[in-house]
Amino acid sequence: MAITLAACSAREGGPPPPTDADIAALAASIAALGDHVDPDEARRAAHIAYEYPIELAAQYGVTDTPLAHNRKVNRGARPRGLCWHWAEDLQARLNSQNFETLEVHRAIANGLNPILISHSTALISAKGDSMYDAIVLDPWRYGGKLFWSKTLEDKRYKWYPRLEILEERRRRRLAYEGEL
């Protein structure tokens, strides 16, 4: 079932639709990631980054704050909506565009801290650049309303490459189990 932006924004508790200025600002920031970034790809990516999370919020049944929704997912009352679901789905949607001048990355914050809850997101960079030169695209943080910033300018999270965090978790688990 396709969910339209109008239907999502009209849904009580759903995230507000982005303005044209919101999308244009993100598109300009994506285009500014490198001289070789195609402005049309930057506009498409910005449009998807803002509008697709609104569709996901409706699909996930988001009506609460992110942490309240997480509790619903964890107890089986909602099918999806954890941060890594948002990141995975947004990454897949962006990658379906087969961008030639942009690249999508995944990152994790707090991934090795046993006290803090880890957080996953998608990022977009100029093709060939690292995630540290990218823009964070975080739809989970505000329950479907996109948060974005340069990776190193995100004041709330310090991001690390997803695969590095997962590998370190695996290494620590094996060491704990005595298999290293």
Q: Report the helical percentage.
A: 40-55%
Overall structural class, as computed from helix and strand content, comes to alpha+beta
**How far apart lie the N and C ends?**
47 Å
The tally of helices reads 6
Can you tell me about this structure?
43% of the residues lie in helices and 18% in strands. It has 180 residues and is of the alpha+beta class. The protein has one domain. It has a five-stranded antiparallel sheet with strand order 4-3-2-1-5. Helix 2 (20-31) packs across helix 3 (39-60) and helix 3 packs across helix 5. The radius of gyration is 17 Å and the shape is globular. The N and C termini lie far apart (47 Å). The model is unreliable at 1-11 (pLDDT under 50).
Could you give a quick summary of the protein structure above?
The protein is an alpha+beta fold. It has helices at 5-10, 20-31, 39-60, 66-74, 83-95, 162-176, and strands spanning 102-109, 119-126, 135-142, 145-150, 159-161.
Overview features:
single chain; 180 residues; globular; disordered N terminus
Write the layout of secondary structure elements.
Elements: H1 5-10, H2 20-31, H3 39-60, H4 66-74, H5 83-95, E1 102-109, E2 119-126, E3 135-142, E4 145-150, E5 159-161, H6 162-176
Antiparallel strand pairs: 1-2, 1-5, 2-3, 3-4
